Amino acid sequence: MKTSNATWIIAKRELSAFFNSLVAYILLISFLGFTGFFTWLSGNGDVFFRKQADLKVFFMIANWTLFFFIPAVTMRLLAEEKRSGTIELLLTKNVSDRQMVLGKYLSAFLMVLIALAFTIPYYLSVSQLGNFDHGATLSGYLGLILLSSAYIGIGLFASSLTNNQIVAFLLALLLGICFQFIFGVLANGSTGWISELFNTLSLTSHFDSISRGVIDSKDVVYFLSITFLGIFLSEYIISKRK
Predict the structure, then answer these.
(1) pTM of the shown model
(2) DSSP per-residue letters across 112-143
(3) Which of 137, 106, 148 is nearest to 39 (CA)?
(4) Cα separation of 227 and 155, whole Å?
(5) Residue 168: Cβ-neighbour burial (10 angstroms; 0-12, 13-18, 19+)
(6) pLDDT per residue as tens digits for the range 26-47
(7) pLDDT digits over 79-128, tens only?
(8) Are 119 and 23 contacting, i.e. CB atoms less than 8 angstroms apart?
């Protein structure tokens, strides 16, 4: 395996593993089912009930669906390698810790991009229904991509801590709850610089800002920082096994 190609080879192997099992299909159907139902058919918040040509409901539901979807994708990436012992075999080849972790990250990221690509018909359909804000919608999709990247970083770190997939899934959810709920609650329950600190750490506040069509560099930096921190910590945990 050439060093320059190692990351991409690992990513393709993992992505193939998703689709060679039922995992990818179950997750894709679930994601599209939940987002599609609430966007088009829910009866009290769908596009036709609200009579507004936008995808606000889709972005809100996709946010919560990805909260569970991504930990299910990432839970096996490192935990399964550690459980089966193949991680030691992989690391004896011409593959660095960073290349392996980046390959795992890339496979999960591509999986999410595939899921989001299947929702493009939502975008095309709603845009024909009325006065449609393309800029805000594209900004919402950017928010989902950045949000997913951060969740993958969190999930990858959780998967590096254990050799049990279920434990990795629960750890990723627990960490996600902190960023998605707890920091926001603490921000609302405090004042001054402490409130600002927790609001800065809150994933929801940054996603809401981007999904409204406001692309601020601090929001982009926030999501990328969580992503890089998750990748770095995963690499560090893996390196400690040597």
Answers:
(1) 0.88
(2) HHHHHHTTHHHHHHHTTSSS--HHHHHHHHHH
(3) 137
(4) 10
(5) buried
(6) 888 988 888 888 777 765 666 6
(7) 877 776 666 566 666 778 888 899 999 999 999 999 999 999 888 887 77
(8) no
